[in-house]
Write a structure and sequence with these properties.
450 residues, alpha/beta, seven-stranded mixed β-sheet, 21% strand
Length: 450
């Protein structure tokens, strides 16, 4: 992880940790770098979520890009997976998404994609960081020339790209959703004007909540991190299923007809089992992260599916999938990647895949999860000033070893730095929920005391 760019881009509090000047400099360097190597004007497509600060960062980025002689194409409010899709299909040199995903509205972020719709290389991100800090050979304006005359870039309205992405999602479905009642929680974010269009076009009767963004209510007690309102919507209206997305639309958490949550592990179990049954799961393998529940691996083992584990972050899942040609991978949080259709997690696509399986197997969502029983799990996020020093706390290391010994063969403990927030994440799994909570609380107090 670099100074600014972590596993999921440059993220922090808007105009405190990430400012319009940062965005302008990112645009300046990226526009110059891509144009100079291409030998002609580079084309960069930009999407954003519904945060108030997204407009500020969008204009600053496009100003920097065009000042360096590249062209900026604005998708406006859209999802991260739509930016990845359009970057590839429309031949852009890079894609940028302005979002802080599931974080509160006061935060924002910048994700940079390469021409293949994948997370940009660490090498280029380090060059951008050095330019921001004035530490590179390009730190002076004279070394990074401003475009003049006809070389100045142009900013284009490119909302047509978002519309093509919607059409693409609709084209993927092979089943009609007629007579199915579906709940959608759009998290007051990027999916608010996309998800309903897709499901309505496929014949579903949609019940939509959290689709009235005002710039400050994104992820506020809604969406994939807070699916409680969706659970209530599903049970009160006797819906067939519900799907909750996050702020930038790359996550999906499901709710079955009984109001029970089906998280990313449950989704991978359902989809992995279905793909294996149909001979479409390469090497009978699903890619997970180290955060997936122990119960998922037990359920996979019972049906002959192997799992490869990566570090937390959908970029690591994608890299493993791409390297080995795997069809399915994801995270417990709801980032699910179907390599046949996308290079990144896509919440709406995930919802479509679950609906397709329900219809083809003629089973309810709850029935599809039969065979998967998650171990009780407790996850605590502890805010810290310095993640590195917190992880090196001697008392924490001693306590961690003690608990790991106690859990050996009966559960597991994971303590890690967040890649996107100034917190230490503590996760405990074992056969007793009470023990999980007790262990987590003890560890959290130790981190806070360090």
């Amino acid at each position: 992880m670099g100074k600014y760019f972590d596993t999921d881009g440059f993220r922090g509090r808007a105009n405190v940790d990430i400012t319009a000047l940062h965005a302008f400099k990112i645009g300046r360097f990226l526009g110059w770098y891509l144009t100079s190597r291409k030998g002609e004007k580079a084309r960069i497509v930009i999407g954003k979520d519904t945060r108030r600060s997204s407009y500020m960062l969008e204009y600053a980025l496009s100003s920097g890009i065009t000042a360096s002689g590249a062209d900026a194409y604005l998708l406006h409010v859209t999802t991260t997976p739509s930016v990845a899709y359009i970057t590839v299909t429309d031949g852009f040199d890079s894609g940028i998404m302005i979002s802080a995903s599931h974080n509160p509205y006061s935060d924002n972020g910048i994700k940079i994609l390469n021409s293949k719709g994948e997370k940009q290389s660490d090498e280029l991100l380090r060059l951008i960081e050095d330019y921001i800090d004035g530490k590179s050979e390009f730190c002076k304006e004279s070394d990074l020339p401003l475009a003049t005359d006809k070389s100045i870039g142009i900013t284009f309205d490119y909302s047509e790209g978002r519309n093509r992405y919607i059409a693409y999602l609709i084209s993927i479905a092979t089943e009609c959703f007629r007579n199915k009642k579906i709940g959608l929680d759009c998290s007051n974010g990027s999916t608010w004007h996309i998800a309903k269009s897709v499901f309505d076009s496929l014949g579903a009767k949609t019940f939509v909540i959290s689709a009235e963004p005002d710039g400050t209510n994104i992820n506020l007690n809604c969406g994939s991190v807070h699916p409680e309102n969706l659970q209530k919507l599903v049970t009160e209206n006797r819906l067939d299923a519900g799907f909750a997305f996050d702020g930038d639309g790359d996550r999906c958490i499901c709710v079955d007809e009984n109001g029970k949550i089906v998280d990313g592990d449950g989704i991978m179990y359902i989809c992995g089992k279905y793909l294996k049954e149909n001979g479409k799961l390469k090497n009978d393998t699903v890619v997970t992260t180290i955060m997936s529940n122990y119960g998922l691996y037990k359920a996979f083992s019972d049906i002959g599916i192997k799992a490869e584990k990566t570090n937390v972050g959908d970029r690591f899942v994608h890299e493993c999938m791409a390297e080995n040609g795997y069809a399915l991978g994801g995270e417990q949080s709801g980032h699910i990647i179907f390599s046949k259709y996308a290079t990144t997690g896509d919440g709406i696509l995930t919802a479509l895949m679950i609906m397709e399986i329900m219809l083809r197997k003629k089973q309810t969502l709850s029935k599809l999860t039969d065979g998967f029983t998650p171990f009780p799990q407790c996850l605590v996020n502890v805010p810290v000033k310095d993640k590195k020093s917190a992880m090196e706390n001697g008392e924490l290391l001693k306590l961690q070893k003690k608990i790991e010994n106690e859990l050996s063969g009966h559960g597991r403990l994971l303590i890690r730095e967040s890649g996107t927030e100034p917190v230490i994440r503590i996760m405990v799994e074992c056969e007793s929920e009470e023990k999980c909570k007790a262990y987590c609380n003890t560890l959290a107090r130790t981190v806070e005391g360090g």
